[in-house]
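Field: COMPLEX_INPUT
Field: COMPONENT_COUNT = three
Field: RESIDUE_TOTAL = 1255
Field: MODE = joint
Values follow.
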Amino acid sequence: MNVEVDLTAREDTPRWLTYAVPVCTILAALGVGAIVLLVIEINPLEAYSIMFVDTLTSEIGQTDTLIRAVPLILAGLAVYLPLKAGLFNIGAEGQLVFGALAGAWVGLNVSLPGYALVALMFLAAAVAGGVLAAIPAWLRAKWDINEIITSLLLTFVALEILSYMVRGPMQGGSGNFPQTERFSDAATIPTLFTRVHAGILVAVLMVALTYVIMSKTRLGFEITFIGSNDEAAVQAGMSKYKVYLFVFILSGAFAGMGGISEVAGVQGRLRAGFEPGYGFTAIPIALLGRNSAIKVMLAALFFALLFVGGTNMEVFLGIPAALVEVIQALIILFLIAGEFFKSYRVTVDIDRSPAPAPAETPKGDA
Amino acid sequence: MAGFVAGLLDATVAAATVFIFAGLGELISERAGVLNLGVEGMMLGGALGGFIVTVVTGSVWLGLGAGVVVGMLFALLHAFLCITLKSNQVISGVMLTLLGTGLTTFYGSNWVEKDIDGFSEVTIPVIGDALVEIPVLGEALFHSMPTDYIAITLVPVVWYFLNHSNIGLELISVGEDPEMADTMGVSVFKIRYLAVIIGGGLAGAAGAHLSLAFVGNWTNGMTAGRGWIAVALVIFAQWKASRMLVGAYLFGMLNALEVRSQGLSVSVDPGTPLAGIINPVAEFLMNAQIMSTYPYLATIIVLSYAVIRTRSDRLAVPSALLQSYSRETD
Amino acid sequence: MGESTFLEMNDILKQFPGVVANDHVNLRVQRGEIHGLLGENGAGKSTLMKILYGLYTQDAGEIYLDGSRLTLESPQDAIDAGIGMVHQHFQLIPRLTVAENVVLGEREPATMFRPEAASESRLPDALLSNSLVQSIAKQFSLGLDVPKRRIQELADQYGFDIDAGAKIWELDVGQQQRVEILKALYRDVDLLILDEPTAVLTPTEAEQLFESLDRLTDEGLSIIFITHKLDEVEAIVDRVTILREGENVGTETVSEVTQADLAEMMVGREVLFQLEKDGIEFGEPVLQLNDISADNDRGIEALSGIDLTVREGEVVGIAGVSGNGQKELAEVAAGIREPTGGEIVVGGTDLTGAKPKRFVDNAVSFVPEDRLRYGCAEDLSVMHNAMMKEFDGSRFGDAVGLDYDELAAYAELLVEEFDVRGAGDVTATDAGDLSGGNLQKLILAREINRDPALLIANQPTRGVDVGAIEFIRETLLEQRKDGTGIVLLSEDLDEITDLSDRILVIYEGEFVYETTPDRADRDRIGLEMTGGQATGEPGKTGAEPEQTPVVTGQNGEHR
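Field: COMPLEX_OUTPUT
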């Protein structure tokens, strides 16, 4: 008996599959998570109900989710935009941290009336993130040096610089801990309602900006085209240089703003261990929402829900919050596995007939 | 002074071992055309797995073996995703790191307080005792953990394997031109799988060395970015096994200097001209955190230099790196 | 059949979605002969050989080599059966040496493990003959001494000048090709397939190759030589099988037929297209290339000292065998390749060294040879591709914003005017889903509707179906009437003579001949295209075969 698994490349991805895959992968990841839960003797249904239902229906849950979503949305955009141009921004985490650093510095050392200080902090964060992102962008645009590696390595550089600043020039308080002073009221992002801070406005605004750029402007057209075939695009007169720099710098600015919004809106000071990981979580978010900035925002909200729900699970059931990280990574793994099924059709052939007789040589003249 | 140098060398050797293990693993994987960004996660897995087994069984060697196995399991997943399912290697790797970090934090919290009898330093049999007597170098180089010795001997082994064996030749060809290798009868899938799994096993070994020898216990996230440095190391070494050793010791020394920089200060006499500038700058450059950036910056510089200066068909990068392969028949 | 028939391919059928690549093809190759496989692009030659080499499996039909039936499921099977192939695009790893490339896959163990070297080896016989030991040695060691000697012997035997220890990137193209041949010889093949081997060689290198091939057959090797060039068939082939549209239309002995006969068999019909061309007055120069030189992608000079002037309403046809600088000429004129010397003036504006954008802004349109690579983004919609060159500027919106509705309407207009079939919903259908001919029409539509002053068309009807070919040619003539200056590069001599006002022949980066359609002597053009007698080319030995141009009219498969 012969079992043959055949792979044939699909010519076209059926519409239903495009939607089914993300849904199925999320379900599959939750499924595996359920197994893990069972192993540690927790009822998965109870756990997931706390994670999703309770979080969504309670005011605290909604508030927390929105707060969490802010840096995730911005970081998600920071990966999404270069992706449209065919580039991988793996350094969003570094840009985020760098932005937080610059914004914090401004918040601690400059005084301006009213909300102007906060606005300036955001600006500084955007500039810092943009500058950091410009380096891999330029190296790629000018010399074709792989941006995955450069942006990734710069992330760690940024993290170390943060560590240095917070232990040295920017160290505050009694000087015993590697952290800055608390931000003054002027340097704290004002809240809008309940505890949700104005960062959410910035995030939504950036989503709208990205959406408009990509779907309604000539620049967006260029970005899309270069992302699809850069050789043809250059032949048509489009500038790879301009586009690569633009998407990366804007992305760096987004990530930077994500960083400062977390620090000045939630944490209140900059600590040495500030390494929230949003920059890496942003990668699956951008993948899930790869076709539109709005979808990115939705994906970010979903992940925020996951995080908050995870914390709730920890509080109520004693499950370590690290499980959320595990589920999140599982979602991605299943997601990329799912990509495979979109591109290939798998058929399994079970052949029950006996093996054919060996070939014979012909008789007579050849 | 001599004491400082000796201590520095000792620490360098110890730190370098982690990089050598993980770096060699990454080298093998990348030369076969598969980028593995999950090294950090695999190292953590190996560290925790090895630690747990050692606590339970009392044997460090079993722990080391367990670490290797854990690394291989992670790598198997990466291989399946990237090779069979032809997924994006970057994403798969980064996600495996997330997975590894999450899983080890999740399960590892129970093991943080535990104690083990880790590896202890030994000398090479027969000639070891004499070698240790060499001033300055002796202690540092010849009185080390067994895993340190294993790591050092691995380098020439891997070099030989890559450059002077048929399997190595086939591995290189798979990383340069899988289509051509396939036509010549080389089993591309098999070799890539093997390469990735071996790479994962070595990463696991690096992690196990960390928890069993270098530090001697487990803490969440104890790899502290060493996995990423290993990835950088391979690029820094321009994918040559011979340069890996140099690079690993360089990065290892930087690592060791960081820790020691507190007690170290370079300064010139305030009276000398420009002292006002030199001293603060030197202090800045010798700062522990700033020094941590050097491996990364150095790698970016080396990479840029290599790409800009070299003709594209002579680049050291394996030509098929990051490309999935499928035999497009019919 | 013949007493010395070595290879028999019987009734081979191979289908792909939408096309029958090999339609019950029979092939007989005799031992020790050079058998040509002649046909246009898309006739089925490559497919047939890929089946023979194990890369494809036939849907029906059998293959017999020296009387035994072959089942070929991979190139390894083919090599084991004694069939070797030299591909058009070399399969060599530049970073490794000749020996390493040749030996890859053969698992030559270190010398001391070789059983035949038992006397030299210090290992006991028992150990050497143990299969486990052999297996380990083959995997974990590598001995290049014995192979290098063998490679050197083979090279000397056939007159190849190769150093087995040299790295591939150090060798020139001709030498690299010989390494490819050595790979096959090393594996003791009896039948060697060469896929358009002269495509990458200079005429001198081609001569040397032919000499080597003669020596190979003297030693008993059988060769299948794939080509679409008639002069090569004359020069080196003993018997030739002609394929046309997937079918075998005949096998002839070369010495018994004329090139005209072969050409007719290849193409199968008289030239159909009779186009009306009005006499018009030419206007101001729209393109001036002065003393242009340029390098190709490998950094080797592809154009030297090109002077070209094209006027309004003038069609300048450039004839030549692919690989003589046409691609580089088209790219320089379109502004996407920077020349290494000389001047470019478009419509009175000096555009030497200018970026592609400026060429686009100066009303230069370009239909590239490789349409999938340079002409469109296949994953984007028809609408996106229709707008490729107009992304900037004032049409379809204002300075910043883009009106996608207007864009869609424009795309639909183009699709209708230019009869682009299969486009469906222009915002949803991907450009890559269109057939070759329709994609080309879309590209042409886009380029022409910009109302260009200068249009550069490189192989505009290659891989396009008959109906579309006619349409495209008529469109070009209409543009001509409109006052557009056109540079037409084509391997199709009929196309050139039908459409051009002036004909230039390019050979090895220079214009070597100029004429007009009424004065055109096709024999002379063909001669010039292949670097024939008139230029006093040194190094040509032996009898000069009668040079006639390659007649490529209709093409089949290609996208």
